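Subgroup meeting minutes
Present: P.N., E.W., G.H.
Scribe: E.W.

1. P.N. recapped why we're keeping a running log of single-chain structure predictions: easier to compare across weeks, and new members can see raw inputs and outputs side by side.
2. G.H. added today's entry (226 aa).
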Amino acid sequence: MSTSSVVLQNCSWLLSLDPRKRIFTGRAYLRAKRVFDLTLTLASAPLWLPLMGLIALLIWLTSPGAPVIFTQLRTGKGGRRFKMYKFRSMVPNAEELKAKYAHLNELQWPDFKITNDPRITPLGRILRKTSLDELPQLFNVLRGEMSLVGPRPTSFGAETYRLWHTERLDVVPGLTGLWQIVGRGSMEFDDRLRLDIIYIERRSLLVDFLILLHTVVAVFNQRGAH
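Output recorded in log:
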C-alpha cells in the first residue's frame, strides 16, 4: 500500500483539519508547545516515575551487572546530535552484534530493523511491545532535546540525509509522531519522511494532542514502531 493510501486510511482526521484555522503559529506555537510538553510531562510524573523505577528494577534483576538505561546518539533539530535515553531491551553487546546480523536487516541502510531480533531480551520484548522502553525519553523532553510529538530522531547523522530530508530538521524531534500511529514499522525512511512533512505542515496544539491520543490507542492495539 502506498504512503498516500496509508495516510488517507489512517490519518483522515489530520487531513481534514484546516491549518489556516490554527490559534497559535510561528514562535507563539513553539512557546505554547513547550509549555504543553512541560505541563503534561510534569503533571503525569507521579504515574511514570514509579513505573520507571519498577522497570529499572526488573532489568537489573534479569540482567545483573548490565546497564539499565541504553543511550544512543540521535539527530535532533538543526542536525545537532544528542543522547537519547531508552530502557535497555537488548543484550549488552547489541551494537557490536549489529554487523553479525546485518544480512537480516529488513530496511535500507542506515536504517536497521529485524523482525524477532535475536538481540532482544525476553523482558525487552515486553517493553518494546508496550513501548515502555521509551519512557526514559521523558527526560529528553524535560531537557528540551525532544518534544512529546514530532518526527522520531534518527540514529544516523544529518550528513546522510538528502536535501529534501532536511525539512524534518526544522523541528524538535518527538517521542511519538504520525509514523507511530499509522503503525507501519517496516516503512522505509523516505516514506516516514513524507509523514513527517505532513505533520510539520499541519502541526498545532490540537494535532499534537490528537496524535498523543492516537498513540495511546496504537500502544493498546500493539501497533506502531520504534
